Amino acid sequence: MSIAVVTDSTAYLTLEDRKRYNIQMIPLSVNLEDGSYEEEVEITASEFYEKVRKQKSFPKTTQPPIGKFVELFEKLAKDYDEIISIHLSSGISGTYQGAIQAGQMVEGVKVHAFDSEISCSPQGYYVLKAAEMAQQGASAEEILSTLEEMKTVLRAYFVVDDLSHLQRGGRLSAAAALVGGLLQVKPILHFEEKVIVPFEKIRTKKKALRRVEELLAQDAANGNQLQATVIHANCEEEGKQWMNQLAEAYPNVEFHLSYFGPVIGTHLGEGSLGLGWVKKF
C-alpha cells in the first residue's frame, strides 16, 4: 500500500525536507493591510515581520479552504492508496477538521487525518517520522500508532515578549494576558488539551529560558537520545546563541534551529522563543 504524507505550512519544514520525503504542504494564510498571503508560498517569515511593523491593524490568519484539500487529495489519489494528513492543533485552528471533511469528499483514497495537538517544529516531528516510515514501507496503522506513542514523549515550551498578541488573536484568555502585562511576567506557555495555556509564570525572559532548559535537562538525563529545536520569531541570532549554549551542555541531544512563521508569529509576536523536543525512536 502506497502512502502519501500531507501537512500544513505551520510545521515550518524546510523545502529540502519536504522534497527529500515527498511531503505535500497545504498553506495557511495571513491577512495584512495590503492583502492576503499564503505563508511559505507567497510570503516569508522575515517579510511578514517587516510588514507587520509598518501596519496599524492586527494581522489575522485563515485556515486553508476545504477545496485546497480536496484538490490535493484527488491529485494524490491517482498515485497513492492512503494519505496521512498531519495538522496543527485542532484547539487553535480548524485546519485538521478541514482535512477530515475533505477526506470524506474524495473517492479512491483513504485519508487519515492526524491532530498533532501542537504546532511549528514539534508538529514537524510527526510529519518527518510519518514520511520516513512510509518510505520504509510501514502501514498507515503502524505509522499512526507510532505518532500516538510520540505524543507521550514530545515536549514544547515557548516564551513570548507580549501576551497581547495571543489575547487579541483569541488564543489566550484576556485574564491571563492582563495578569502577565501588569506584573511584567514572562510566562512559559505550552499546549495542554490542544490549546495554549500558561505553564509557569516567570519574572524575566532570561529566567524563563533557564527554566525551559531545566525541563529539557530532565528528559535528557541519563544520556537519553533526543532531537530538539530552538524556534525563534524573527530573532535568529538570539535563537542561535541559545541553541549553541544548549548543544554544548547536552551532547546527547541533536539540535536544530527553526522559526515561528507568519501564521503562528501573528499570535506570538516578534521576539518570542520556543524549545521543542522528542525522544528518538
Number of helices: 11
Catalogue the unreliable spans: none
Helix content percent band: 40-55%
Proportion of strand residues: 15-25%
Give the count of structural domains. 2
Helix/strand structural class: alpha/beta
Radius of gyration: 19 Å
Classified by CATH, the class of the largest domain is Alpha Beta
Biggest sheet: strands side by side, in what order?
Answer: 10-9-8-13-11-12
Keywords:
globular; 11 helices; 25% strand; 281 residues; alpha/beta; 4-stranded parallel beta sheet; 6-stranded mixed beta sheet; Rossmann fold; Hypothetical Protein Tm841, Chain: A,domain 3; 2 domains
Description:
41% of the residues lie in helices and 25% in strands. Helix 3 packs across helix 4 and helix 5 (120-135) runs antiparallel to helix 6. It is built from eleven helices and 13 strands. By secondary structure, the chain is an alpha/beta fold. A hairpin with a 2-residue loop joins strand 9 and strand 10. A six-stranded mixed beta sheet has the order 10-9-8-13-11-12, with helices on both faces. A four-stranded parallel beta sheet has the order 2-1-6-7, sandwiched between helices. Strands 4-3-5 form a three-stranded antiparallel beta sheet, with helices on one face. The chain has two domains: 3-152, 3-Layer(aba) Sandwich (Rossmann fold), CATH 3.40.50.10170; 153-279, Hypothetical Protein Tm841, Chain: A,domain 3 (2-Layer Sandwich). GO terms for molecular function: lipid binding. This is DegV family protein. Keywords: Lipid-binding. Pfam families: DegV (PF02645).
